[in-house]
Queue: 3 jobs
Job 1
Amino acid sequence: MVTGDGGSASRARSLAADDDLAGRLALAVGRLNRRMRSSTGGLSHGQLSALSTIVRGGPIRPSEISAIEIVAAPTITRVIADLEARGLVTREPDPDDGRSFFAVATDAGVELLMRARSDRARSVAAILGELDEAQVESIRAAVAALESAAHVAATPGDRPDRSH
């Protein structure tokens, strides 16, 4: 049996290719985010994401928001305070723990989130409109993997029904 370092050389090439992919993806995502920046309803991307989590999961404890958003608890505390000051969320006491509370979206918070999502969708549609059909199909094929990488649970309407 002959063994060489062909396997390790191949692995090194693969890691270098992954580094290139990672760098290219980070650059592309960053630039796309900047192009969509005006579509956040006046909130930062972090605030908008937290508001989305509150709308989707509320009433929800700050610790749960922190875990979903993958940020430190003090950060979520500040974000909730900012959203509350804007009238987008309220606090409800936790009946099981007097030191804690639940964050709940207000009607204004839900409305702002829906408007921001619609604005962002239009922004992304305009960006996709700049691409040819083959590029759009490549993106369509990659969306599920990107959602998984971002730990985003797709909603039933996000994906075509593949049951037939």
Job 2
Amino acid sequence: MSQTALNEVPTHLLPVVSSEAYRQGMASFAAAVNIVTTADAHGYAGFTATAVCSVSDNPATLLVCLNRGASVHKVFEKSSRLAINTLASKHTAISNLFGGKASMKERFSCGNWITSTTGAPILADAAVSFDCVITEITSVATHDVIFCQVVDIKQDENADALLYYQRSYHNANKDV
């Protein structure tokens, strides 16, 4: 069942929030830092994301938001699998690498990557890695929302969490 409440609201009568005001507000929205990865015939691809969210536990489903202008967009758009690797505080450098303009070869040269059940690369020492199959992609504004069903989980019970808040990294165990 699908409902679209926005179609019932006359949005043209509502105030407009600027992109700058929205980004400033989102700076106060603490989020876990993740590396989202996939693999295709040309090798591995991945990007840093904080826009990751649980959708359901039955079946176990997550969503990831990816800007359609991102260099990795076409790879993920054509993929049937992905892994969400939630980072620990020791992964700040790898987060920056995957969030920048480095080549895929450079990105995956940092860290110990192993192959998941679906074939997506997972970071061996991630706080938690969710191995997923992509079930749906929906375009919203400038982004695609990728829905994926979790088929396997690898977790380090002793890991801390890397958070992004107020435009900087924080260690959840130390700072929270």
Job 3
Amino acid sequence: MKLKSLLLSTALGVVLTSATLANTPPSVKATNVLEAFAESHLTTDANKLEKILSADAHMKFTKGSEVITQGQPAIVKLMRLNHGTKQNCSTVVDILASSEAMVLAKVNFVYEGFVIENYLTLEMDRYQNWKITRIDKFFNEAETPDVLTRNKKSI
């Protein structure tokens, strides 16, 4: 009899746990993170950027022939230095590849005369939230034909 009670209690616990987890709201979609990245750039909002960057995120860009790498604290610090500056550009977002746990996207900031081209890697963290783990940044002249994204989605 004790065994039946134990089995019944265990089964009930499993059912209740499953029902509770089924009602958990879905994680933030990767597209929302991409939109937040674009918005944080347009308004230089370091707090917004910090929320969507992984703690071990890094950004790479070139300075002449040298590749510079900055970690998450340096990325956020630089944005804080420019806090409140409104960028005069348009934004183009394109998801290049995606899976259940990783997304590769291109986010272009198109200014008059040049484009800041960002390739972002997003990964799902252990809490099922999308975080940016890598940013590869390129500065190009706007006339370069390969710079602008083919499948355009302006934000």
